[in-house]
Amino acid sequence: MHCPFCRHADSRVIDSRTSDDGLSIRRRRQCPECGGRFTTIETASLNVIKRSGVIEPFSREKVMSGVRKACQGRPVTEADLAVLAQTVEESIRQTGASQLDANEIGLAILKPLRALDEVAYLRFASVYQAFDSLEDFESAIEQLRLDHGRAAVGADAQAESAEA
Ligand SMILES: [Zn+2]
């Protein structure tokens, strides 16, 4: 990589650090020509194709703001949203995709959101999966009940007693 100070064609890595979430690497570099030091951050590219066709980098903040609306009045904290956005990013990166539709991000949000808060999940799903009738809500709620029945112990059961 070119030195940003003198444009020398090479630079030397003097320190390399992986971020806490493991999704990026920060490198301290030094130019052998002028001695200038600078930092580069390396991340795997992940882009989102919006409905309008515009391509933009994946943003955890956008995931959080989309979910935040569905969580209004629910016992969901900003820290919960941050963890959810990280989970979504990790699950998307695990697929190896470097570019995906905004709709696929919506789908990737559904599962962790459901584990976080079922009411917020229903609100979010109603928008993302375009529920247009009471029957759509009924079948989504029925599915939640069925899954609760299957997992009588564990996190789901705790969520139920917390709601009671
Ligand atoms: Zn230089």
From TrEMBL:
<dbReference type="GO" id="GO:0008270">
    <property type="term" value="F:zinc ion binding"/>
</dbReference>
<dbReference type="Pfam" id="PF03477">
    <property type="entry name" value="ATP-cone"/>
</dbReference>
<keyword id="KW-0862">Zinc</keyword>
<dbReference type="InterPro" id="IPR003796">
    <property type="entry name" value="RNR_NrdR-like"/>
</dbReference>
<dbReference type="InterPro" id="IPR055173">
    <property type="entry name" value="NrdR-like_N"/>
</dbReference>
<keyword id="KW-0238">DNA-binding</keyword>
<comment type="function">
    <text>Negatively regulates transcription of bacterial ribonucleotide reductase nrd genes and operons by binding to NrdR-boxes.</text>
</comment>
<protein>
    <recommendedName>
        <fullName>Transcriptional repressor NrdR</fullName>
    </recommendedName>
</protein>
<dbReference type="GO" id="GO:0005524">
    <property type="term" value="F:ATP binding"/>
</dbReference>
<dbReference type="GO" id="GO:0045892">
    <property type="term" value="P:negative regulation of DNA-templated transcription"/>
</dbReference>
<dbReference type="Pfam" id="PF22811">
    <property type="entry name" value="Zn_ribbon_NrdR"/>
</dbReference>
<keyword id="KW-0678">Repressor</keyword>
<dbReference type="InterPro" id="IPR005144">
    <property type="entry name" value="ATP-cone_dom"/>
</dbReference>
<keyword id="KW-0804">Transcription</keyword>
<keyword id="KW-0547">Nucleotide-binding</keyword>
<feature type="zinc finger region">
    <location>
        <begin position="3"/>
        <end position="34"/>
    </location>
</feature>
<comment type="similarity">
    <text>Belongs to the NrdR family.</text>
</comment>
<dbReference type="GO" id="GO:0003677">
    <property type="term" value="F:DNA binding"/>
</dbReference>
<keyword id="KW-0067">ATP-binding</keyword>
<feature type="domain" description="ATP-cone">
    <location>
        <begin position="46"/>
        <end position="136"/>
    </location>
</feature>
<keyword id="KW-0863">Zinc-finger</keyword>
<keyword id="KW-0805">Transcription regulation</keyword>
<keyword id="KW-0479">Metal-binding</keyword>
